[in-house]
Amino acid sequence: MLPFLSGVRRVARVLIVDDSEIDLLLEQAILVRFGHETYTATDGEAALQVCDEHEIDVVITDLHMPRVHGFELISALRDLEPRPWIIAVSGTGLSQLEIAHELGAQFTLNKPVVPERLLAAVDQALVGRAAVASKRA
Question: Which CATH number fits domain 12-136: 3.40.50.1000, 3.40.50.2300, 3.30.70.20, 2.60.120.200?
Answer without folding.
Answer: 3.40.50.2300
